[in-house]
Design brief:
The chain has 19 helices and 11 strands. By secondary structure, the chain is α+β, with helices and mostly antiparallel strands.
């Protein structure tokens, strides 16, 4: 089977230059596109960057070639080099030697099967020979992509990197793929306590931006990430109701606040403040600041409640307004795109001698009184 990478003009030009460079200076080198670019091409998704493995070079010659090309090296051993939007590396075998993501020894792989064995999932183990577009699939990745399945390549080596459990979760949410049952059982047994907070954050942030949050929620529970990261579990009934809300809300929440939706609805299911989950994940402060102002939707929603929320923000910035009935009512009240202005001048209260905390309390009371005057108790 052959496959043509669908690249942007800029990325295509960089790849063409690489092909000419290696053909001229290192003609016995075989270049293979690997990983996400091949997977995404099969899925019809855009390709923004390329990972290429260079077969037929020893490490010294490879370093020499990268210097001649003008690529920039990153890494401690077996450099990965960057040339524009393309990462170039030698094919390698990795063996676990210690705890954490740095505890690996690296050796040169001689065959495509050796090199692809270190990949996490079959869909990411595909290789595309640049010279003629030959698709190399040693592990059934094409079939798994067609079946929309996430399947472990090699159970023995997979367990050496616990980050792969979180990668399964975020891939499930990004692609709308199910996790194959045996792979799921394997990942449930893997501890996550060797992962740094930063590496956990990176994978969760990919989940938060994904289109299929309900798939990510399923993986969170099925892989027992909820218990290992948050110390809580999601019951079957709560999963079903929360997954349904996530699937619907992801379609309606404005894109600029969609990254906060997963934690908001998960916190609602667990009867927690959303900021509590942001703190448990050690997320950047922007998450904590945003989620600190996000109230959950009460059982009885009135115009007055919406008006009170609109004192803080236009309701398009409130995650609870994802429900069509609430958005429609907020638009009718004129507080979806704009916050409610109670029209209270602080100078008037300061003229009465109020200052500091006393002034703040008085302003809040006056604003709430305007809410009561302007919005009734009509149930939404």
């Amino acid at each position: 089977m052959t496959l043509q990478l669908d690249l942007s003009p800029a990325l295509g030009a960089q790849l063409d230059h690489l092909k000419r460079f290696f053909h001229k200076h290192y003609p016995h080198t075989e270049l293979y596109a690997v990983g996400g670019a091949v997977r995404d091409t099969l899925l019809g998704r855009p390709v923004y960057d390329l990972d290429i493995e260079c077969f037929g070079l020893d490490p010294e010659t490879f370093d020499e070639a990268m210097a001649r090309l003008g690529a920039t090296g990153v890494g401690r051993s077996f450099f990965v080099y960057k040339y524009g939007q393309i990462d170039l590396a030698l094919p390698r075998i990795e063996r676990k030697t210690g705890r954490g993501h740095r505890g690996f020894s690296v050796a040169l792989a001689r065959t495509t099967k050796e090199a692809s064995r270190r990949r996490d999932f079959t869909m990411n183990a595909l290789m595309l020979r640049i010279s003629d577009g030959l698709l190399v699939d040693h592990w059934g990745g094409v079939d798994d992509i067609e079946a929309r399945l996430i399947r472990v390549v090699d159970p023995k080596t997979f367990v050496e990197d616990s980050l792969r459990v979180l990668r399964a979760m975020q891939f499930s949410a990004r692609l709308g793929f199910r996790i194959e049952p045996q792979s799921c059982r394997l990942m449930r047994k893997m501890a996550l306590d060797d992962l740094s907070a930063q590496r956990i954050v990176w994978e969760f942030e990919k989940l938060f931006r994904a289109p299929c949050l309900h798939y990510g929620l399923w993986a969170l529970g099925a892989l027992e990430i909820d218990k290992k990261i948050f110390g809580r579990t999601l019951s079957s009934s709560l999963f079903l109701s929360t997954a349904l809300r996530m699937a619907r809300a992801r379609q309606t929440v404005p894109s600029e606040i969609a990254a906060y939706l997963f934690l908001y609805l998960l916190a609602e299911a667990w009867h927690l403040l959303p900021v509590t989950l942001a703190e448990a994940l050690a997320l950047p402060n922007r998450y904590k600041r945003f989620l600190a102002d996000q109230k959950r939707v009460p059982k009885r929603v009135t115009d007055r409640f919406l008006g009170g929320m609109a004192l803080r923000m236009p309701l398009k910035a409130w995650l609870g307004a994802w429900e069509p009935r609430l958005r429609e009512r907020a638009e009718a009240l004129g507080i979806y795109d704009n916050a409610f202005d109670p029209g209270i001048e602080s100078n008037t209260l300061m003229a009465r001698g109020l200052r500091g905390a006393e002034l703040g309390t008085a302003l809040r009371r006056a604003a709430l009184e305007r809410v009561r005057e302007s919005f009734g108790r009509r149930l939404i």
